[in-house]
Amino acid sequence: MPAFHWGDKIRKFFQAPSTMPALVQHPILQQSFAVIDREFGPHNFSPDAYAITRRVIHSTADFEYKRLIDFSETAIAQGIAALQQRCPIVVDVTMVRQGVLGMVNRTFQNPVLTAVTAVDAAEPGLTRTETGLLHCWEQAPEALYVIGNAPTALLALCDRLSTSPQRPALVVGAPVGFIAVEEAKGRLAELDVPQIRVEGRKGGSPVAAAILNALLVLAWERL
After folding, report:
1. Per residue in 10-45, pLDDT tens?
2. Is 58 annotated in the active site?
């Protein structure tokens, strides 16, 4: 199958209007953010990093994410720019896809590829999500990669990144669990790639979706 290159092919057809309609937030969401703001306490987050972390806490009711989320230096800026240019988004599982589609459709309508449904079956020795992730990499290596469930998919992505000159726009590494999770996040941390990473065993599809949704809001508000 030939490589699937988006880049300028999509971007040249996308011209944002000078004034974008505001993203109306539900009153309960606004009230929840106000509670988080009161309880968050001292921090050193930039305004953008705080907005992302706050949305994760809203999705989990867990303030421990204050110390678990790590942002590489250019991650937020590069993620915002890629979303505004309608860069493809690759997610590992259907739960992440469902968690972001609403905001994607309200904003830039980026193509969303789902690793676990990208192939009919796993290759020998691999999980289906791992196999699908590698398939998506062949189609869109420049995409935003959002991993919220499968550490095998993140490990597969790290393997490709360790040998390929191609780089994704951003990697969100937030798989959850006990087996290979911390190993996968450790591998990602060693790579020179824009990344937002959730340390330790915590994470999950709601966390990964919250990170991307927060980035979409930031990207939309910057136009």
Report:
1. 444 344 444 456 777 778 999 999 999 999 999 999
2. yes
